[in-house]
Specification:
One of its GO terms (molecular function) is (S)-2-hydroxyglutarate dehydrogenase activity. There is one protein chain. The chain is of the alpha+beta class. The protein has 15 helices and 20 strands. Strand 9 and strand 10 form a beta hairpin. Helix 1 packs parallel to helix 6 and helix 2 packs across helix 15. 49% of the residues are buried.
Length: 499
């Protein structure tokens, strides 16, 4: 009995069974149904690392509530450009998912996406000034036109009762609310997409580790494989390789030896969430309430009290509480960080350590925080929360990008980055938030860079069938944006909460 792939030659090899590989594989099957595609995942089922609903916030990142996507400048002004870009990206994701649902290629959207309003909530005069300035900068743009702002405790209590009940009436509070926000279970979506792929001749291999990548004489790649449970080894030859293995991507990128991957490092950040599965409590809160990050905290550590839908059940999530581990994956090795150090990235990594002492201080304070201290942080967003109703769960690992910088030696980059070989035969994705929510536009960028001729001359009509507004800036066309929002809401069975 063989445990290693029977395929010896593939057009595409996808490494990793998360939302990124699932999105790319599904997209390619729509564009090139005859291509031979093979996927390798080292765990026994897909979507268990960063795509798992309990390993991420499932926000459906569209910059409606995430304050770090529109920070204040030194003069106090707010530039909406990045927030607009992220919102437009998420609309493409919604359109792609809608296409798959409309064509009955995946199951009911209720299994992976639900309406949950997005809120930003701040305390104090300084934060109020920022939030109001942010709202004024965003509301004139069509993609944010529906966002509401309030300083009235009674109104905010209607939006998020648990946030306001029991709060000191002397506190200055302010909030924005976007009724069209969503909660996304990316683990469920990943399984739907990979299920579609498996039914359409994509070979799916679980329990299989990619151990090495080597150039072939004809410009392709030899992908070395190991099935740890049996000890069996093998190889697949691929014309194109995508490394979409989350935190595991950096090591494989380094093994590929492509010059475009040199100089990159990774800084792993772990953490925990509080989870409440008591439905009597969860039914009193329907929102994702995001606040301001602590000084030195990475953007992905912004505190938030979220409504989650997992397996059809409503629950609450609060956090994250930052932590540190040298693992690059939740199921990884403590040697992941030290084994990633190379002569070409050690200077950037040392420079980042020197320039990010606030981050180190934040992580130390978070790691040493007691459970009582964690409950105190929860009380800032849910004053009457009873710690006994909440269990601590370990979040997924996030690996922030470290890259060379001519002036500083190295910088810690928040976000995602596509690294592509010069000949387009290999691509890897590094980084974190907004990540999964923008998987569709990220994969579009990858396709354009790796298959430029096909992208330009052969795939345009198919792409616009899947995503009707592709190539259009929705923020510059209010009517088209409203039409797109309404159309995808109907397909995805989303009903705007006007509370």
């Amino acid at each position: 009995m063989t445990f290693i792939s029977n395929t010896k030659d593939a057009d595409v090899v996808l490494i990793g069974g998360g939302i990124m590989s699932a999105t790319l594989g599904t997209m390619l099957k729509q564009l090139e149904p005859n291509w031979k595609i093979v996927l390798f995942e080292q765990l026994d089922t897909p979507g268990l690392e960063s795509s798992s609903p309990w390993n991420n916030a499932g926000t459906g990142h569209s910059a409606l509530c995430e304050l770090n996507y529109s920070p204040a400048a030194k003069d106090g002004s707010v530039n909406p450009a990045k927030a607009i870009h992220i919102n437009e990206q998420f609309q493409l994701s919604r359109q792609f998912w809608s296409h798959l649902v409309d064509e009955s290629l995946i199951g009911s959207p209720k299994g992976f996406i639900n309406t949950v309003p997005h809120m930003s909530f701040v305390i104090g005069e300084a934060h109020r000034k920022f939030l109001k300035t942010r709202h004024e900068a965003l509301k004139t743009n069509p993609v944010f036109e529906s966002m509401e702002y309030s300083e009235d405790p009674a109104q905010i209590a209607k939006w998020a009762p648990l946030v306001m009940k029991g709060r000191d009436p002397q506190q200055l509070v302010s909030a924005t609310r976007s009724a069209e926000g969503t909660d996304v279970d990316f683990g469920s979506l990943t399984r739907e997409l990979i299920g579609y792929m498996g039914k359409n001749d994509v070979e799916i291999n679980y329990g299989t580790t990619v151990t090495d990548l080597a150039r072939t004489t004809d410009g392709g790649w030899d992908v070395s494989l190991k099935h740890p449970a049996s000890g069996e080894r093998g190889k697949v030859k691929a014309k194109f390789v995508f490394i979409g293995s989350g935190g595991g991507a950096l090591h494989l990128l380094q093994k590929s030896g492509i010059p475009e991957g040199k100089g990159f490092g990774g800084f792993p950040v772990s953490g925990q969430f509080f989870r409440c599965t008591d439905e009597k409590i969860a039914e009193k809160h329907s929102a994702k309430v995001y606040g301001q990050a602590s000084v030195g905290a990475p953007p992905m550590s912004v505190p938030h009290l979220d409504t989650r839908y997992v397996g059809g059940k409503r629950s609450l999530l609060f956090g994250p509480y930052g932590g540190f581990s040298t693992k690059y994956l939740k199921t990884g090795s403590y040697m992941d960080l030290p084994s990633s150090i190379r002569t070409n990235n050690i200077i950037p990594m040392l420079a980042v350590g020197k320039d990010n002492l606030d981050l180190v201080k934040y992580l130390v304070s978070e790691v040493t925080k007691s459970r009582a201290g964690k409950v105190d942080a929860l009380h800032e967003y849910f004053p009457e929360a009873d710690g006994k109703d909440w269990e601590l769960i370990t979040a997924g690992q996030r690996v922030q990008i470290i890259k060379k910088d001519a002036k500083k030696g190295g910088v810690l980059q928040f976000g995602t980055e596509v690294i592509t070989a010069g000949d387009g035969t290999l691509s890897a994705l590094l980084g974190a938030s907004p990540g999964a929510s923008t998987a569709v536009p990220i994969m579009l960028e990858l396709l354009q860079r790796c298959f430029p001729r096909k992208f330009k001359l052969e795939w345009q009509d198919s792409l616009r069938t899947m995503m009707p507004t592709y190539g259009t800036k929705l923020n510059e066309n209010a009517e088209l944006f409203e039409k797109s929002l309404a159309s995808t809401a109907a397909s995805l069975q989303l009903t705007t909460d006007k509370a």
